[in-house]
Every structure is written in C-alpha cells, then in structure tokens.
Design goal:
The structure is a homodimer of 344-residue chains. Chain A is of the alpha/beta class and 344 residues long. Chain A has 15 helices and twelve strands. Chain A has helices at 10-17, 21-28, 36-49, 55-62, 77-91, 110-121, 136-144, 168-182, 197-212, 229-241, 254-266, 284-288, 300-311, 313-316, 318-321, and strands at 67-72, 97-102, 125-128, 148-153, 163-166, 187-191, 222-224, 248-251, 276-281, 294-297, 327-328, 331-333. In chain A, the strands form two sheets. In chain A, strands 2-1-3-4-5-11 form a six-stranded parallel beta sheet, with helices on both faces. In chain A, strands 7-6-8-9-10-12 form a six-stranded mixed beta sheet, with helices on both faces. The radius of gyration of chain A is 26 Å and the shape is elongated. Chain A starts with 9 loop residues before the first helix and ends in an 11-residue tail after the last strand. Chain A binds a DNA duplex (30 and 30 nucleotides) through helix 2 and helix 4.
DNA sequence: GGTGACCATGTCACCGGTTACCTAAGGGGT
DNA sequence: ACCCCTTAGGTAACCGGTGACATGGTCACC
C-alpha cells in the first residue's frame, strides 16, 4: 500500500481513502463544507497509517509557519523563564511552537541580525522582551518586513495591539510612600541602566514620591546598577559607605535588591532593623531569601500570556484575543524586609 | 525586473544573473565545482536584490530543517536558562535556531506528545534535559522516529554520542567527607524525587560516604524533596524538628539548600555556626544568598554546549564535534555555609 | 421541465528550493 | 584523429502541502 519507506504523506492518505489530496487537506484543516461520511473515512485512514502533516510543506505553501519567536536580551534568567512560561501557556494545545532568540544589544549588527532572523524563519510573529523591547528601531524593522510583533514593557511603548505594559512609576511611588510613612527619610535608590524606559519609569516614581514628601535627597543616594547582581552589589556598597547611611534602599529589580541584602549582611547589618529593602519584579529569589523580601509584583507571566494571545489574535479569530488588556497593574507585596527606621 | 511584490526568490536571482536556479543553489551551498566568475556574478545579484533563501522550501526539499529542540521538564529556571545559554553558544554563527519544548512529565500522553512534536517539526535533533532525560522510553521514541538526540544526565545514560554526564555520586561523596572531616556526624540529607537517576546518584554518594566513615545514620535523617524550594522547605523543617538536630544538611540541589537556609534562619539559627549546609548545582542563588553557599558546581553550561555540538556532529563534519567529551567532572565549591559543628 | 444556487469534491498549477541525470566544451593520452 | 574523462552548468521531476477554479449532482423555484 504505502510507498514502502518514509513517513506517510497526504498522497498516501488520499489514495488509501479513495479521495483527492485536496479533500484530505480539507479534513486536516477542518473545512466546514465536508460530508460527514467522507470526513470519517479519511480520518480513519489518517489514524490507521499514522499520518502527520508535514509542517514544512505547509509553511511553504502558506508562506508562513506556526512559530512564534521570543527576542530578548534580558539578564534575568527567572524572568525569561517566566515569560517563556506565559507564552507556552498561551500556545498550549495549538500547533504553535516557541523559538527563542537571545540577542546582544550591544552589537552593532543587532538590527541586521534580527532582521535576517525574521526574514529567514518567516515567523508567525515575535514577542520582544524588555529591555530591548524599548528599542523603537527594532519594532520598525518588524513592521518593515511585515512580521507581527508585540512588545513588553514598563510603560506604553506602542499601540495597544503591539504591546503590553505595566504601570511601574505608579507602583514605585506607592512603595516609596510606604517607606516614607514608616518614617524613612534617607532612602537610597539603586537605579537601572541609563537609557532604559523601565529604569527611567522606576526612577521617576522614586523621585516623584520623594519630592511629594518634601524630602531633599543628596545626589549620592542614587547609585547606578545595570540590573545584575554584581552591579547591584557595588551600588549597595556605595550607598552603605555613605555617612549618614540610608535607612532604606529601593532597588530597581530583585537581583539588585538581593545584592543589597547581601551587602548589608556582609557588613553585619540586620535587615530590616538596620536597613529596609524593597525590590522589583517578585521573582523567586525575593521570597526564597531570608528575610523574605518586600517587592513589587510585576505580573510578567500574565503579561507574556496576554502578549502571546495578542500576537495570535488573527489566528484565533478576533473574538477573544483582541480583547486582551494592554496594561497590567503591578502591586506591592509586603514581606519582611521593611521596618520602621531604628531611632538613632 | 523582480516580479514586483514579495521577497526575491532563487528564480529571480537566476533570471537576473542569467544562469539556472541550480547554479544559484550551488552558489548558496558553496558547491566547489563552480567557476569563480559565475559565482561572483551570482553573488553580486544576491547582494543587490537582497535575496534570502527560503528555509521552509529548503526544509521541504531536504526533509530536515535546521532547528534543534530542547525538551525539558526542569523546575529550575536558572538551570534551564544555563542550558539554553550553552546551546546557543554552540549554534551561534550557524543557521540553526533553538526551539524550546517544556513537557509535563506526569502527563499520561507525554510520550505521544513528544513523538508528535518531533514528527511534526522534523527537528535536526533534540537535547533532553534531566530529569526527563532519564526516561529511556523517551530516547527510544527518538530512535524509533529517527531523530538525533543527546541526553544530559547525572550518570551514564546512553552511548557516548547520545549523552553527556557528570559524576554526581563521586563529588557528593567528597562533599560529605568534607563535612565528616570537620567533625559532623549527624548529617541530614534532603533527597531528590524517587525514580530520578540524579537523585539516586546523589543519595548514593551520601550513603557511601557515611557508611565509609562508619557512621550509623537513623532513617529519619533522610528527608524527601522533589527539587523545588517548597518541598525543600518542608524537608528541612522535618530535619530541624529532630532531636538531636542534625549539625549539617546536604541538599540534593541548590533550591532545596536555599530552602534549608531559609528554614534555619526562620528558627533563628545561625548558618554555618548552628548548621552547615551544602547544596548542588551552583546556580546563581547559591552565591547570591547570605551566607554564600558551599555547593557542588555542576558544569551545566559546558555540558549543554558540548551536547549541542554532539548533536550537530555530522553537520560540522566529524572532526571536532565527535571528540566532545561525554563526562564532565563536578567540583565542590567552598563558600561560607559550612563550619565545624558547635561543641554542645 | 428548465434554470440557477448550492454543495461536495476534483484538477492542476504553484510555493521555493534540491536531487538525479544530462549536455556541451575542453584536455590529454594513444 | 579518436575516445574518454573531467568540468561547468542546465533540465525536469520532486518534496508535500495549498489556492483558484472547474465539475457534477441535488434541490427549490418559476
């Protein structure tokens, strides 16, 4: 029957079922205008010989495949995994697969690399993670070559169908107000890298809250990091070397917050009694270290899931996916790394 | 010139260069039997019109594509990211891309799902991460449908060209001997989940070291976890509730070691003075928490890189890739979570 | 009874590459 | 001068699907 070797193809199915390949194609694609009897017959043959459609052939004919890409340059492993988890949740039970593409933001050929990648693979669409999602030229490249995209970010980056975002500056304001209400006045900031919207938003929230409380902060209470543990450690050390020392530190992400805790304990300081710390992201490390860290829960999994759904909006048919929200509120999670400042 | 719309195809190049498409194909594939002049002419046209070969068409004709898959069911984000990093390092500057496929080990349809995935995508090959890499039936599925595979594991799982492994039991023995040499005799073990080779190997190393030292351990000093923080926390609590308490804990991975530290500190205990802790994996958390944790460095990035190279051995031509090692020694990293037991 | 609408299905070219095989030209050996 | 071999390149079929359009049968309606 079957042409001896090799996987069965649509031709084998057609021959065995006594129909044309087009009819088989219709069965596979759930075309509605099929006689139930014919459909059953074809489906039986498919099951019998274990036919699996060839995605490459389909991709060629359709001029698009069923792959979604994830482009990122994010240093935080936990976050990338969370994003992957969100995407995978969205594409579960579909025929889509996820293809991961880390890029090197610094590289001068970055844009060309991505363009080449997108053109070669003809992805159905891509999700772009911060921080590189903030690069407008990258989005422009996607638009130019006609590749669907959704950007994730800390603030509005694009039109609603092309992004999901959170309200970073607002929630940071809330976090800092919390510290202020406990009596903290010397609050250090470990800022994210220059040129990043997320860093800018978080810093903005910090500065607004401080200004609103009428606190005058010396410039030295703002230290720069670039979202990694190591730079966070250096920044925290700089802050803790100050005299008088800050009584609280807000770090722009959890990695750097964990580094602050590390730096404090290395000096024999007690957290939260000698130093309050607030982080941002609510990745696993925040709740795993001791003391459990007060941080901002950044709903990254939901955002990623929603972003993926947006990406596949026209695949699913506009009904549900197009109603996905674009704005995701972050919330302050109170744990044990914050206390009123010790009275000197 | 070019058929107005759409990306240029091999036909456009052929027409413009005044050669047949086969000749263009030869240029793309660096066929050696080409006149340098013709080659230059074709290459010029390719550059001029920005031709990019269509990977789907090629995949169809070649009956294989240039995608490598990563199959995993690993709960540890950092580890998965490290593996991805290793793979990406290996395929950098090639045309290969990485496609990630987390699976649900518990699911009754797991094998069928993976089989379907492999058959549909016709991957060039897959890498299988522990713990699911230990499932021989999964490897059997790969073999059956003719998909290249490499398994990563904690012990020999397959023939050398199909695996990379580490020497877990040996290095755990070393770690436990270290504790014993410091004077510890009541050493708790937080074991990994039953049925996992990695868990078994690590436990074996533990038991061998203890037995060799002539120590008789009560069964209660072995608590089960399943590699997650939460189960580690529960296991650590069980150990610390014992009386007399263990003076040291070896946890089968860093997550559970971090959980032990968390549990100890929650009780007001001091690490390492009241309790020594050793973990396994050397993921970021081990060096980020306080005190920095003594742990076993598991060379996962190198292993992943090497595994990917093995996978692509016949692509690269056997010269370098086939000489990749299959066994990677783990090493004990001494940090600050271990000290001699306090004299009662 | 003829006609058009509609339904289920078939035909065939095409997506953009590759393989197998063929041709034509040039070169050397005898 | 003849033959064979090598080199450079062309031809046509094929990989396994899909789209546009054609076909033949049924039914409702005038």
């Amino acid at each position: 029957m079957m042409k001896s070797m090799g996987k069965p193809t649509i031709n084998d199915v057609a021959r065995l079922a006594g129909v044309s390949k087009k009819t088989v194609s219709r069965v596979i694609n759930r075309s509605p205008l099929l006689n139930g009897e014919t459909r059953a017959k074809v489906e039986k043959v498919i099951a019998d010989i274990g036919y699996v459609p060839n995605v490459q052939a389909r991709a060629l004919a359709l001029r698009r495949n069923f792959l979604v890409g994830l482009i990122h340059d994010n240093p935080n492993a936990q976050m990338v995994m969370n994003v992957q988890a969100g995407i995978l949740e969205a594409i579960r039970d579909t025929e889509f697969e996820l293809i991961v593409r880390p890029i090197d933001r610094g590289s001068s050929t970055m844009l060309a690399d991505v363009k080449n990648f997108l053109e070669r693979q003809r992805l159905y669409g891509v999700l772009i993670l911060p921080p590189v999602s903030e690069n407008d030229m990258l989005a422009e490249v996607c638009r130019e070559i006609g590749c669907r995209y959704v950007r994730m970010g800390s603030t509005t980056l694009d039109t609603p169908e092309h992004m999901v975002a959170s309200n970073d500056s607002e929630v940071v304001r809330e976090a800092i107000n919390h510290l202020i209400s406990l009596g903290h006045t010397r609050i250090g900031l470990i800022a994210g890298p220059h040129g990043f919207r997320s860093a800018r938003e978080r810093r903005k929230g910090f500065e607004e809250a401080v200004a609103a409380a009428g606190i005058k902060l010396p410039r030295s209470l703002i230290a720069d990091g670039n979202y990694t543990f190591e730079t966070g450690l250096a920044a925290a050390d700089r802050l803790l070397d100050l005299s008088p020392r800050p009584t609280a530190i807000f770090a722009s992400n959890d990695e750097m917050a964990a580094a602050s805790l590390h730096a404090a304990r290395r000096r024999g300081m007690n957290v939260p009694d000698d130093l309050s710390i607030i982080g941002f992201d609510d990745t696993a490390i925040a709740s795993h270290i001791w003391p459990p860290m007060t941080t901002v829960h950044w709903p990254i999994i939901s955002m990623a899931r929603s972003a993926a759904l947006k990406l596949l909006a026209d695949f699913f048919g506009d009904d549900l996916a197009s109603e996905e929200p674009s704005m995701f509120p972050s919330t302050l999670i109170h744990r044990a790394s914050v206390a009123p400042p010790r009275r000197d």
